[in-house]
Target: CHRD domain-containing protein
Amino acid sequence: MNKKMRLLAVPTLALGALALSGGPAMAHGEDSWSSQATLNTMNNSGTTGQAMVDVHGTEAVVTVNVSGAAETFMDGPFPHAQHIHIAAQGTCPGPEADTDGDGVVNTTEGHPFYGHIGTSLTTEGDSSPDSALAVERFPGGSAYTYERTLELSPETAASLKDGSAVVVVHGVDPTKMPAAAAEKMSDLDPSLPAAATLPAACGTLVGSQMAAMPEGGADTGVETASDNGVAGTAVAGAGVLALAGAAMVALRRRARA
Ligand SMILES: [Cu+2]
Model:
């Protein structure tokens, strides 16, 4: 992260500090850790993958690798909405979650297991739950690698910490669905076919404190591919922490005044 971007980050950090001010939850802003998920196939999609979330203070570098996903949709790449779902059981539903008996577990039927959306893993712009189905800002096609640095909401950070954060990739080839289910419209958006939002892969993010990792440790290779990348991330993280500290001091002064 360059100097200008760090400066731009200040107002956001200050807002975050305001939201958390006065409680022990402040400690969230000072942690660095990593969480990983293996994404397993749901709904006979054949989609699998891995996800990693590297947290540095209130920022996270999110990496998602997906293969075996639905390839095309109306002559374009099949868009794959992907989210970090939070604050439920932190699990991926099995076939028994199909409460309406149509042969697939749709997104809503999965909510009791993986929860509602905490973060939308969009390629650009807003990453809040408001962008849940911003299909033009999600990766697409049968295989992709996604990487983005995001501002973590306190809610998503809390779920990452307590083990209830789950990555869900959506969008299934309709030919892999039972015919009756494939003819339905989406439970999330009646203007989209059910296939567009059906969960395709799911995995619980399991955390590990980075400090506890062995030297050159068990990371998945994304970081080890570039020593410069590792150094850059560490420096940026330190800068953000320093700014967060400054924001806290400023808030305390304001509170006393
Ligand atoms: Cu989702």
